[in-house]
Amino acid sequence: MAQGNLGIEPEVLKAIYGQMTRIRAVDKAIQAGLSAGKFMFTYWPMTGQECIPATISQLTTERDYMVTTYRGIHDQVAKGVDLYGMFAEALGREDGVNKGKGGSPHISDPKSGSMVTTAIVGAGAPIANGLAISAKERGEDRVTIVNFGDGATSIGAVHEAMNLAGAWQLPVIFMCQNNQWGEYTRIPTYTAGPNFFGRAEALGFKGVQLDGNDPAAFYKGMKEVIDHVRAGKGPVFVEAITYRIGPHAGVGDNYNATKEELAAGKERAPLEKTRALLLEAGISTEEELTALEAAAKAEVEDAIARALESKPTPPSETIVDVFADPDSVPQRGHFPVREAEGELSGDTESISMAIAVRDAQHIAMTNNKEVFILGEDVGDPQGGVFGTNKGLQTEFGDRRVRPTPIAETAIIGAAIGSSIAGMKPIAEIMFVDFLGVCLDQIANHAAKQRYMSGSATHAPLTIRMQLGGGMGGFGAQHSQSLEAWLTHTPGIKVAYPSNPVDAKGMLLSAIDDPDPVVMLESMMLLYTLKGDVPKGEYKIPLGVAKVRRPGKDLTLISYGYMLNHCFAAAEEVAKDGIDVEVIDLRSLVPIDYHRVLDSVKKTGRALVVHAAVEFCGLGAEICSTINEELWGKLKAPAMRYGADYAPMAYSNAIEFSQVPTPPSIAARIRAAVKS
């Protein structure tokens, strides 16, 4: 075949083959090492899919963003991730690209543009949107490519992400590496759709199907796609047809395929075909290709040898990278003293919590152009379901205040991706009950990104959620208090203000925080409670509790709207001569055990009250810590009081009896003091 008939420049084809050779060398070395017991880690082979990332590498640079999956080691190699750092990471070594904390399924290497690797099928697509938002808003010509397999097309996260990308015309490429297998399941078994690329058209943007095993055809098609996206013409879905020769996980061949299927797949394998083409067209000689392959093998062997010599990541790193500051991590016996806010001064205004939240966002958006709001119905004239953003879209525009589809996973994913790129998103999820809809993005991605990447990347986003419960009329799916879900997830900070002053100051702290923060806002307080709030900017630090009422007989610990019930109960028992100290936690993670324990040392008794279900609630954790730390100094065991173990009832008669009330809290206080 003459060089002129190739449909691709000879030097480009040689470069693609060079990357394919490096990828295959990595694949072979891993399979050999695992088989021989030389090392051990989980491996999902991509044998047969080498052409896709190798070709893309000739059309993109390290400035372009990439998101990939656990089966993405070929993507990492082609993107330019250092092989030594990559192998050290897979082996859990301190010289790993992410300090050995993420492993091969979670590589983040911003130097090469490999931003996120997720082990959750399809979860990278919403995050890729956020990276694309940052590029678009900054006027950069970066392209974001999110890789996933055909199996991920069944995941709701991919559908939500595609819909949002189409609606907002984001510069993102949804790269479906269709290797014909959804883990162990054949395509016809899990979908009746004739293809995958056609789904893009239904969502209003371009979809194409390309031969992912033909470097010339794939290069031509991908060049058109990347040029389209880079020019700001919106997203593209690419279905790259290939074949996975290996099993879902482990080593060897795909044992789920028939012998005939496997033989046909190997015959179409891109590396072997491209090698033969280079020789046939006279572009390379056998000696040149042999030398190229030997160099790739040597590069990989050297990287593995050095990685095996690297020291394992030590236990001393256990809590490092959970948060930016290790002191924010709750630790047994370690109760740091955090400096409280100074005396707030200056002019004040009497406003509701809703207006305080709105003012905090206004200040943050004025100070930093990369602060933006996204969520359902957040735009004007409504300004969000609870009106906490009213007027902000009118003032700052619809790219700083972004009403979204009803798609919580897409919302949080976009916030995560944009925050990883350095923006400061505020995502509103409305009712905390919807936490379950997007919990994967929060718990597996926002919370873990800093840790899994060894702080190479992090996600400084703010998530606002409203809570009901104890106010009547919302029922079991709009009245829950789910803060324990969040506090049990390492990597998420949780703030829960009880008044307008704290709501404004804590939200400003949350927006500036280097870690993901969930701000919980009580619906009961948003408009019913007013306070004299300082005008302008001020901050209430996270992790600092506050004594709201001094006392000597018992420490009453609470947060959010339940704190006001505690005030009422304290006043009630004062008639009996019981002097109660009331502590407002304000921040649940980091938690201020120092001030809590100091108070209980003085009073000798403690009662923790919350609207959440009592069983396995935060109160149990606080009481356990108090009892362990102050045993022998207590006049009575620390006790907790929360809601009955039942869904929140629609019936007011049941709902108002199943959560703590001032009279029932007062009864618990009297019982504690008598014990």
Automatic annotation (TrEMBL):
Keyword line: Oxidoreductase, Thiamine pyrophosphate
Pfam families the UniProt entry points to: E1_dh (PF00676), Transket_pyr (PF02779), Transketolase_C (PF02780)
Cofactor(s) recorded in Swiss-Prot or TrEMBL: thiamine diphosphate
Keyword Oxidoreductase: yes
Domain of life: Bacteria
Keyword Oxidoreductase: yes
Domain Transketolase-like pyrimidine-binding per the UniProt entry, residue ranges: 351-528
InterPro entries hit by this protein: DH_E1, THDP-binding, Transketo_C/PFOR_II, Transketolase-like_Pyr-bd, Transketolase_C
Assembly mode: Homodimer. Part of the 2-oxoglutarate dehydrogenase (OGDH) complex composed of E1 (2-oxoglutarate dehydrogenase), E2 (dihydrolipoamide succinyltransferase) and E3 (dihydrolipoamide dehydrogenase); the complex contains multiple copies of the three enzymatic components (E1, E2 and E3).
UniProt function note: E1 component of the 2-oxoglutarate dehydrogenase (OGDH) complex which catalyzes the decarboxylation of 2-oxoglutarate, the first step in the conversion of 2-oxoglutarate to succinyl-CoA and CO(2).
Record-given protein name: 2-oxoglutarate dehydrogenase E1 component
